[in-house]
Amino acid sequence: VPPMTEVAARQALLRFVASRCCYGSRAAGELVIQRLRPRGTYRYRLETFSESRLSEWAFEPFTKAGAARPPGDAPLDPWDVEVGAPPLFQGQTRRCRVPRSALVRDCHRCHGRGRSQCRVCHGAGRARCVTCKGSRRRLKQQKRCQLCSGTGRKRCNTCSGRGSKTCATCHGEKKLQHFKQLVITWKNNVFEFVSEHHLNFPGELLSKVSGENIFKDENVVVYPIIDFPEPEISLASQRAIAEHSAAFATSSRILRQRQTIELIPITEVHYQHSGKPYLYYIYGLENKVYVQDYPERCCCGCTIV
């Protein structure tokens, strides 16, 4: 990481001030930078790319004769079904059929008839007239209802007077094909740890910036980092790998792991304005700014991040 200069420090502050409606830019241009104190912290990240499989029963209208499972053929185990994995460390969910798991049964909704009773007329084919409400006469008038010819009922529009409709479950095919559906979930599980920086600086801001990658290890299974100059990073690596192994090794399949260490630069900028000392921080490769107190503010409506 190149060292911070006074010019870069002032430009970073000017960009920050320009993004705040109640911060004046004059102070940023007039301040006197007294000291640039380089600081930094480490961020450890473990990524475990896992695959989990779950089978569930599904069904669809049976339309193809001979598509059911031949007698004696056992369905494949969910982990024996070959499915191409997505790019590494990119989450995704897919659904596919388990081969040789299809079974054909009569439709449970219509009991194999292909049609179900109309819910509006309850199978009668005729429903209450919507104009006279079944009274046979028009409301507020003593005249016979012309829409239903005084019968109080008319042909059901929902089923066209047939009393039944095509079964919505089997689509009139009378049979359903039941099969096992495989739900495959690929997930990138991330563990992240930032070492203590002992600064008057909100640590959560560091998760929003990038750092310089100083270590990368990728394999099917990675091993804990040992004897890193910052002991907290070694301990975090051991804890992360143990947690991911316990969480994913039994319930899913670990396809790949990757662990990285980043150095996040932090510069402590000490300056004076109108004879008073002030301080702000520049952090991340993006040169983001965190200000504790700014000498030229016209209101208190801005969040200082």
From TrEMBL:
Ranges in a coiled coil: none
Highest taxon of the lineage: Eukaryota
SUPFAM superfamilies noted in UniProt: Multiheme cytochromes
Cross-referenced InterPro entries: Multihaem_cyt_sf, SSUH2_homolog
Protein name (database record): SSUH2 protein
